[in-house]
Amino acid sequence: MAEKILITGVSSGLGHGLAKAYLEQGATVYGCSRRKPDDLIEAGLHYQSVDLLDAEHGQKAFEELIHDVSRFDAVILNAAKLGEIRDMADTPLDDLRGTMEINVWANKWLLDTIYSSGKTVKQVVAISSGASISGSRGWNGYSLSKAALNMLIKLYAGERPETHFTSLAPGLVDTEMQDYLTNLPADDRFKPLDILKAAKGTEKMPDGDRCAKMLIEIFPKLLERESGEFTDIRKM
Length: 236
Ligand SMILES: NC(=O)c1ccc[n+]([C@@H]2O[C@H](COP(=O)([O-])OP(=O)(O)OC[C@H]3O[C@@H](n4cnc5c(N)ncnc54)[C@H](OP(=O)(O)O)[C@@H]3O)[C@@H](O)[C@H]2O)c1
Description:
Blueprint (H helix, E strand, L loop, with lengths): L3 E5 L4 H12 L3 E6 L4 H5 L3 E4 L5 H12 L4 E7 L15 H24 L3 E8 L3 H4 L5 H20 L4 E6 L6 H7 L9 H8 L8 H15 L6 E4 L4
Parallel strand pairs: 1-2, 1-4, 2-3, 4-5, 5-6, 6-7
NADP nicotinamide-adenine-dinucleotide phosphate (NAP) binds next to α1 and α7.
């Protein structure tokens, strides 16, 4: 029986790469995002447009997407917003709230929607970030939200022993997120920008397709680790 995989944020970057690679392997893949990935839909992706910032409408669209599935082999919570790199004092509260909504609370209602309809899930991987622990100046809402995501995943792991949970930092990935970061002017306040600019275009920053293939190899190995753990792929 083909594996059933659910991925959020399939329109670009890592999520697009994951969906493509799983489809190529013959898995049945379910995905959502705001922008429609026509190429993946043509390749067989089950797709719904879902805005994770809009819990009310988003949840209904998400329910439709997963309605006919009783078991997922993997749920990959990948969608996220980076937000602007700037000082915390210059970051409007509403901006931080929006980032938390997409990167943390949406993952709560996505998981609750899956479980409340009686579906079973073998493995949940939430795509986290080194920023969840580094606390680099300027990464504000993104760092806060990824730190909270790590804890959200640990809390669900305690409630759901039948599912294996991991928050996984995927390393640097050459995606739209990195296009934004690496095109920012160098700024002494925001030191990681220099590292990212130097890594862009090198093997230290594989594109979404390459990173996805590495992650798909790693996901089964995560099952040997404690459920609820935060892991950085660079330290495995
Ligand atoms: N790139 C890196 O170096 C890096 C490093 C560490 C961790 N990560 C993590 O890797 C994951 C993938 O990021 P990426 O680099 O591939 O970024 P990306 O290319 O910007 O992709 C982000 C995805 O999230 C979706 N998304 C964003 N806001 C959404 C919303 N309101 N509703 C629904 N979907 C939404 C986007 O779809 P739409 O815009 O179509 O809605 C898109 O498919 C994220 O969790 C990110 O934090 C990335």
